[in-house]
Amino acid sequence: MQTTLKKTEQVTNNHSNTINYPFLLVTHMVCADQQIHSEESKALHELATQIEAGQRTLEEMEKILAQDDNQLSVEEVARRVPSSQKNEAMCQILAIAYVDGFCSVLERKMAERIAQIWNWPKGEIQKQIEEAGAFSDTGFLDESNQQKLSVSARLLQKADSILSQALVNKLANLTGAEEKVEQLRREILLSGPEYDEAIRECAVVAKEDYQFSQFALRSALSILYYLGKNLQKSIYEIQSKTNSKGQANTAKEVAKQLELTEKSLSAEIIKEIEDVRESLRSKERALNHFSIAFMGRTKAGKSTLHAIVTNDGWEAIGVGKQRTTRYNRVYEWKNIRIIDTPGIGAPGGKSDEEIAESVIEESDVICYVVTNDSVQDTEFKFLHLLKKKAKPLIILLNVKKNLRDPRWLEHFLKNPDKAFAMEGQSGLGGHIERIRRYAKEHYANDYFPIVPVMLLAAQLSREPEHENRQEELFKASRMQDFLDSIRESLIQYGTIRRSQTLLGSTVGAINTPYDWVAGQAQIYGQLAETIQSKQEEIRKKIEIAFKDSRSNLQIEIETIFQEAINAVPSFAEEHWNSNELGLKLGWEKRLKSLNLEQ
């Protein structure tokens, strides 16, 4: 059977019009956590070559990676996977999810979604994961990279298709392990012994802060769960006491408020801390990395900056060719992590706030790229998120000149400083002043570097036709000024930045329920004052009622006895000659007529 499937797949993949749906599921899983690591992208393309994927499969793969509106959705792809290949296809996507030793919530959800489409029994995925030796819940593997890889390999150990065999061979590349990357990369600009030492210090601080954050979040959740149980108990006790006649309205109000509190606690507060804890857990993979995010509007030069700094991704930068994606791209080198985001304001992409939120949490420094041909207020509106998260900012002002024209290039190289002049009609002073004004409005201060650079000059310095002027072009680009800003942020302030990244979100998350509890305490304080006021009012009413009742009773008693006293003279006249028995029976009769007993 396996041999037949193998032959069938070989034949299928040799036809350019046939789509390899299991491979497209793998592609979807690579994108599931909304980040595409540079090594994942490269390995995916190599994987396509190894399995001899047809033209239509390659086209659909590129659409998924770019999140094209016309891509085949996860649902469409999953439904078209043949029944005989579903089990192995699930093993493949789980292997991708667990390749770094951590299966994120988004990756788990995608696997569960596919299982649901296939009408698999609940828990089938969990069973496969446990059989492969991974943890039963979405968690970590505290093992070496080789051991982490073995979890993914074990998921595919019974597989026999070309895709699975090729995938096992490529899993090592997908881990992004430094020793693997070193064989494939030249050194990036952000490298050197000073960086190595700074990163080492950052890693030490990060691990300490990570453990502290985990403990703090775990404690906060434990307390909130305990609070939830006590709320349920109090609601039950109050409701059981107010189900009889004469129900107390105030008790009902308290029970209703307790129900609202419990609902808010479980639906919002606990969920928010769970989300933050999950976010913190996902950062475990990058504890040893210092993360720098490149942000800015579309075509501002982020991808060019990324390619210059990392010497990676040049194939997507060619003249007139701009890489478009709706997901963050990640590049790692010697424990420096660079995140290249989609363009702010990109048509059909995520909102600016979504882009910012997706990267701010995990970044230690934000580098925002703007151009001198257009500096708009709208570009800076998302900066309030940086202020909220206490994230440091570096503004890179990309000075645009048409250096592809040899005349402009010669003119620029004769006097590079002229392109960066502050004064004059074409000077940068007005742009920088405007940047500071916009940023101050949204970021609340202007204490951040604004570094003018000419990215195109730096790009030309990497192109073969300008090899003889490489140093001259790079120096003229002023890229070194930008690298110095990064160096200062990392080497001088790296440990502080790392603490902000790990502790900042945790402190905020713990502070949120604290504020919520304080607000709830105020509500119950007001209810307590109302109850106390009503208690005092009832006490006074009881005292008055007691006095009135006692007075009325005394008057009534005196009235009844007075009637008996008044009846004595007439009774005596009637019974003056009666014997003792007659007197007794007659008096009892008279008292009965007066209703004395009643």
TrEMBL record:
GO MF annotation list: GTP binding
Pfam family, one: MMR_HSR1
Name of the molecule in the record: 50S ribosome-binding GTPase family protein
InterPro entries given in the database record: DjlA_N (IPR007791), GTP-bd (IPR006073), P-loop_NTPase (IPR027417), TerB-like (IPR029024)
Segments forming domain Co-chaperone DjlA N-terminal: 25-123
Domain G: 292-398
SUPFAM superfamilies cross-referenced by the UniProt entry: P-loop containing nucleoside triphosphate hydrolases, TerB-like
Keyword Coiled coil included in the entry's annotation: yes
Keywords per UniProt: Coiled coil
Entries under Gene3D superfamilies matching the protein: P-loop containing nucleotide triphosphate hydrolases, TerB-like
Coiled-coil ranges from the UniProt annotation: 44-71
